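ok so dumb question maybe but i'm new to this and my supervisor (M.) told me to 'just get the structure for Stage II sporulation protein M' and walked off. so i did the thing. is this what she meant?? sequence i used:
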Amino acid sequence: MREAAFVNKNKEKWQLFEDALYNKKVISPDKLSDLYVELTDDLSYAKTFYPSGNTVIYLNSIASAAHQKIYKTKKESKNRFVSFFKTEFPLMFYSHQKQLLIAFLVFAFFSICGAFSAATDIDFVRLILGDGYVNMTLENIENGDPMAVYKKANEVDMFIGITVNNIKVAMYAFILGMLFSVGTLYIMMQNGIMLGSFLYFFYDKGLFWESSRTIWIHGTIEISVIVIAGCAGLVLGNGLLFPKTYSRLESFKRSMKDGLKIMVSTIPFFIVAGFLEGFVTRHTEMPDWLTILIIVTSLALIIFYYVIYPVKVYKNQQTHA
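this is what came out, is it supposed to look like this??
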């Protein structure tokens, strides 16, 4: 079709859309929506067959003006941050409970493997944790302060360093999900083995309770959100592996969006974990009841927000649908 014929065929609907856009002519929302879709389709057609013609310039100007009007009048909620954590994220996360369970089971399994390997091979702990850390800890044990490693650095420096490092580990767990989830599972395995061998090392020295009461002050949230980051990685990987009715690219985009939302949800928790490790964990003299209170409260918060609350929000949404 020649450009002139294309213009004559469609100019009436273009004019109608212009009247609604600039002259505020009253048109039903459905009709206006249909006209906008047809306009963008015509623009795509014109770009293909008349790339250097005036029709492209004309249609592009109308489409751009319409887009600007739509988003200029769209006001962002002042409570966007609150609504994300209160409703948007939990509702989305409800559909990814399976991936969360898988990430947790993989992490737990390799934690057990790490502890078993440390129990059966005397050199395994050094292989995983490094000679430097093991030698330093043995020296601290001999000096009567096994948890001295948490007291050496400045509180603020430790808080910032630990928080940044934990977020980095979580981002690896997420981004490596692009390797069809294999990369994420590897990070879960690596961190699980490290935790298991770490715990067994102190158990073997008769310091299981003393080490646990110290490291789980911050570790409850820290380990939990790393597992949640693993869930985000599996969501990303599953989008590539199982596109369902979408194209693989569209499925990837959707899973990336959901994965990023999961990662955003973990940031406050990483900050809390970093704060606890930098400012609280070092106080090994605190009474057991206070330590247990912090650990139990942290665990309850994680379970409530990532397991119980999404179900509650989903059921509430279904009730009012």
